[in-house]
Amino acid sequence: MRLTSEIKKQMFVEHGGAEKNTGNSEAQVAMFTHRIQHLTEHLKVNKKDFSAEKSLIALVGKRRALLNYIAKKDIFRYRDIIQKLGLRK
After folding, report:
1. Which SS3 state, helix, strand or coil, does residue 18 take?
2. Model pTM?
3. Backbone angles phi, psi at 55, to 5 degrees
4. 57-60-64 Cα angle (round to 5)
5. Contact (Cβ atoms closer than 8 angstroms) between residue 30 and residue 9
6. CATH fold for domain 5-85
7. First CA to last CA across the chain, in angstroms?
């Protein structure tokens, strides 16, 4: 499913605390996770879409960097976001 403005608002409320809190690290990780899932489904059908594959790798790297930042700042927030999104360590 595409990332629409309604889905973004819902993610920011759920993970960021407010609709306007778009800079929250947890909200950004949630948004990256949604985009990663969408690209993964796209690549299952379109195996030779190398530009999408490159974008997927870049998004995974950005999400990993944000998760490392959250883990360094507050390990409890890190564990909470990992559990909420169902990510592997």
Report:
1. coil
2. 0.87
3. -65, -40
4. 140
5. no
6. Helix Hairpins (1.10.287)
7. 25
Pair of tokens at residue 70: 């959250």
d(CA 89, CA 71) in angstroms, rounded, equals 11
Q: Where are the domains of the chain?
A: 5-85
Which pLDDT score, from 0 to 100, does residue 5 have?
85
Cα atoms found within 13 Å of the Cα of residue 53, Cβ hemisphere only:
8
pLDDT in tens, 30-83: 999 999 999 999 999 999 999 999 999 999 999 999 999 999 999 999 999 999
CA 2, distance to chain mean position in Å, is: 13
Kindly indicate the confidence band of residue 1, based on its pLDDT and cuts at 50, 70 and 90: low
What six digits make up the tokens of 44?
Answer: 């299952």
